[in-house]
Every structure is written in C-alpha cells, then in structure tokens.
Automatic annotation (TrEMBL):
<protein>
    <submittedName>
        <fullName>Uncharacterized protein</fullName>
    </submittedName>
</protein>
<keyword id="KW-0677">Repeat</keyword>
<keyword id="KW-0804">Transcription</keyword>
<feature type="signal peptide">
    <location>
        <begin position="1"/>
        <end position="20"/>
    </location>
</feature>
<dbReference type="GO" id="GO:0006357">
    <property type="term" value="P:regulation of transcription by RNA polymerase II"/>
</dbReference>
<dbReference type="InterPro" id="IPR019775">
    <property type="entry name" value="WD40_repeat_CS"/>
</dbReference>
<keyword id="KW-0805">Transcription regulation</keyword>
<dbReference type="InterPro" id="IPR045183">
    <property type="entry name" value="Ebi-like"/>
</dbReference>
<dbReference type="Pfam" id="PF00400">
    <property type="entry name" value="WD40"/>
</dbReference>
<feature type="repeat" description="WD">
    <location>
        <begin position="234"/>
        <end position="275"/>
    </location>
</feature>
<feature type="repeat" description="WD">
    <location>
        <begin position="151"/>
        <end position="192"/>
    </location>
</feature>
<dbReference type="GO" id="GO:0003714">
    <property type="term" value="F:transcription corepressor activity"/>
</dbReference>
<feature type="repeat" description="WD">
    <location>
        <begin position="110"/>
        <end position="141"/>
    </location>
</feature>
<feature type="repeat" description="WD">
    <location>
        <begin position="276"/>
        <end position="326"/>
    </location>
</feature>
<keyword id="KW-0539">Nucleus</keyword>
<dbReference type="GO" id="GO:0000118">
    <property type="term" value="C:histone deacetylase complex"/>
</dbReference>
<feature type="repeat" description="WD">
    <location>
        <begin position="51"/>
        <end position="92"/>
    </location>
</feature>
Length: 403
C-alpha cells in the first residue's frame, strides 16, 4: 500500500528553522524549465480526471483496497474520499457529478494550518480510514466519512501512520519522538515507544505485532507490542533516516537517509547487509517491488527503488546490493515512487510537476503526465489500471493507464 508520510522535510524545515511567521510551508520557488511541448508518450487529457476541491496543497493519497475509493489529505485541514468510476475512459472531469465526502479536521474556521492532514492509511478491508494530522491527533473515519474516533496522545505532528494487516492495531509516529500503538477495539492507546532522541519520521509494520521506526536521530528501531525495549536497533546511517520499508515477506528492512545512502538490514545481524551508495543527494523515499518469492509475482526478481533529491530514481538488486539502473528523466527532487501491482511499471512524481511511468524492465519512460504543481505522492489502484497523483496546486489527478 502506498500511504506515505507527507513532505516532512518542508514541515521539519518549518518547525526547526522558521521564526513562526511563515505559516505556509510549501515548496520553495524553483527555477525550472516549463517546456510543455507534447512528448510522444504524453498521456492524453481524455485519460485524466482532475479532482478539484482541496484549497491547499495535497500531500498524500491512498486507494482503498476495494479499489473504487481514493482518499486524499491536504494542507486545507481536510481529507477527502473520492468515488472513482470503474473502468477506462469513463473519467472525463466534465462527465457528471463526482461523488466526494469531505472529512473536516476542524470545527469552525477553515484556515487552521495546524490541522494539515499529513498522512493517511486504509485498513486491510477498506472499511476504515485513519488520518494523521499536524495537530498531533489521529482520527479514524468510516468509508462514509463519519468520524468514528479521535486518538489523542501525541504532543507533536504525526508524520506516519499505518494499520497492521489484521486491523486491530494502528501505529503512529510523531515529531514528539514517540511511536504509539493504538488498540482499535478499545479506542485507547495500547503502548507508547519512546526510544528515539529526535522526531519519528516513518513507521512500518513487519507483521501484526512487530514494526520498525526511524528518526532524525539516524537510528532505526525494531519494536514489538508488549516489549519494553527495542528488539533491534540499527546504527549506520550518518544522517536523518527519512523512510523505512519491510520487504514483502517481512525479512529485510530497507532504509533511506539524508546521508545519500539507502541500506538493507536483516534481523540476523546488527550491521547492514548492503550499503547502496550511488545517489548524490538526500534520498526521500524507497519502495520494494511486489515481486519475488512469497508475492503474487513469484517469478520476477525482488527490487528496491529509491527516489532522491538528485532527481533520479535508482533500481537495486537487493541480493547483490548492486545498482541495476538509474532512471534519469526528472529535473527536480523526486518525492514519490510506486510499483504497479504486477511489478512491470514504476510511477514517479517530482517537484518538476511531472509524473513519469517507467518500464521497469527497460528502464525507460513509457508515459508522462505534466501537471501544474509539484507532486508529493503517486499511488496505483489494486487493478493497476489507474494511478493517482497529488499536487502542490491543490488537485489530485487520476490517470487511466493502459499499455
Ligand atoms: C522545448 O521544446 C522545444 C520544441 O519541441 C524543443 O526544441 C526544446 O529543446 C525544448 N526545451 C527543453 C528545455 O526541453
Ligand atoms: C496477521 O493477521 C491476519 C489476520 O488475522 C492474518 O491473516 C495474517 O496472516 C497475519 N500476518 C502475519 C504476518 O502473521
């Protein structure tokens, strides 16, 4: 699933460097070429639905596991659940009313910047949506948009929040340095994990009871519900660890950092298995391919993709710890990557306003969509025939993808 913490660097930058007057931590102005000449592989506007309604940048989006609902989270203190028509070609924005539910994270005045929706995640059966907010609260909503519960214990913005597969626990990581496991049945917090000395930037479940957390302190902890110490602490990064992800079988953990490296870790040893060192700037996010033993695509090789401020995406052979291919095509930092469910394509979104879809096998762009703002996140639906992208200019675009 492709829920991601928001553009945390913007927020951290704002938190730690601002004097408090800059309440709009959007992307910095950039000197980029705005050549909108149509490329041969440009996606035609007939294949694009533009979802309008948010009144500030859209940081995050996630398809429900059932596939027809798309949730988006924005700096306008709301999340929205959009019902997207099934099938290709049915998606012109002029065609009929779009069904959307607005999940308000405020009462009264609408410009409460402190309630930015920074992260969101659907539970495994798509019946509940959890949102994490800049106000430190996690909220649980029904698919109908009804607020079911407000989870209140964090003392700082939530940057990452994930359901376990079973759906009985929700895990949240916050600027307050902690991670909290919430018991969904009781609606109360089950356990707080206070093992970092800096903000928790990302969290990821390994299985139903154990998970990893990473922080600006450069450390990664593997924790288990019920245990009062981390079961593993990985040392090795020389900078903030921006994201972590368990491989599809929960045996390897990948991490990426401001130290320009990505690393692969195993529970069997304290030192990293592989140090992936080809990027020339900070690495913002990573994704495992949905391929290899134990996945629905068992006969394809397991890969790791890393997306960097150096404008490239790199694909890695995780067994050998070697670079397979560098995907060069963006002109600005890449904030998001997502593999298609069959593992054959990779979508990427960048501050250069472009979403590219790459053939993984060939390492080439097969489609491009150019919007009017930087892209914070891209996300495939379960069928692999639609890709959503969320933009800094307040819109979410849904592209029909056919090859
Ligand atoms: C912009 O498009 C024109 C027309 O196709 C092309 O000649 C030019 O090289 C492009 N410039 C950039 C910076 O891509
Ligand atoms: C987590 O729980 C679900 C539902 O009980 C189960 O199907 C799944 O196999 C469990 N996952 C792991 C890794 O134990």
């Amino acid at each position: 699933m492709c829920s991601m913490h928001l553009a945390q660097n913007f927020f951290l930058g704002w938190l730690f460097t601002s004097n408090g007057t800059d309440l709009n931590p959007g992307p910095e102005p950039m000197d980029i070429s705005t050549n909108t000449t149509t490329l041969p592989c440009d996606i035609s506007s007939h294949d694009v639905t533009i979802l309008e309604g948010h009144t500030s940048e859209v940081f995050t989006c996630a398809w429900s596991p059932s596939g027809l609902l798309l949730a988006s989270g924005s700096g306008d203190s709301s999340a929205r659940i959009w019902t997207i028509a099934d099938g290709p070609g049915s998606s012109s924005s002029q065609n009929g009313p779009l069904n959307v539910v607005v999940l308000k994270h405020f009462r009264g005045r609408t410009n409460e910047k402190s309630k930015d929706v920074t992260t969101l995640d659907w539970n495994g059966d798509g019946t509940l949506l959890a949102t994490g907010s800049y106000d430190g609260q996690a909220r649980i909503w029904g698919g109908d948009g009804e607020l079911r519960n407000t989870l209140n214990k964090h003392k700082g913005p939530i940057f990452s929040l994930k359901w376990n597969k079973k759906g009985d626990y929700l895990l949240s990581g916050s600027v307050d340095k902690t991670a909290i496991v919430w018991d969904i049945k009781t609606g109360e917090w089950k356990q707080a994990f206070e093992f970092h000395s800096g903000p928790t930037l990302d969290v990821d479940w390994r299985n139903n009871v154990s998970f990893a957390t990473c922080s600006t302190d450069g450390l990664i902890n593997v924790c288990k519900v019920g245990e009062n110490r981390p079961i593993k602490t990985y040392l090795g990064h020389q900078g903030e660890v921006n994201a972590i992800k368990w491989d599809p079988t929960g045996s390897l953990l990948a991490s990426c950092s401001d130290d320009y490296t990505a690393k692969i870790w195993s529970l069997k040893q304290d030192k990293y298995l592989h140090d992936l060192k080809e990027h020339t700037k900070e690495i913002y996010t990573i994704r495992w391919s949905p391929t290899g033993p134990g996945t629905i695509n068992p006969n394809q090789q397991l890969l790791l993709a890393s997306a960097s401020f150096d404008s490239t995406i790199k694909l890695w052979d995780v067994e050998l710890g070697r670079l397979i291919c560098s995907l060069n095509g963006h002109r600005d930092p890449v904030y998001s990557v997502a593999f298609s469910p069959n593992g054959e394509y990779l979508a990427s979104g960048s501050m250069d306003k472009c979403m590219h879809i790459w053939s993984v096998k060939e390492g080439k762009i097969v489609k491009t969509y150019t919007g009017n703002g930087g892209i914070f996140e891209v996300c495939w639906n379960k069928e692999g025939d639609k890709v959503a992208a969320c933009f800094a200019n307040n819109v979410v675009c849904v592209l029909d993808f056919r090859m």
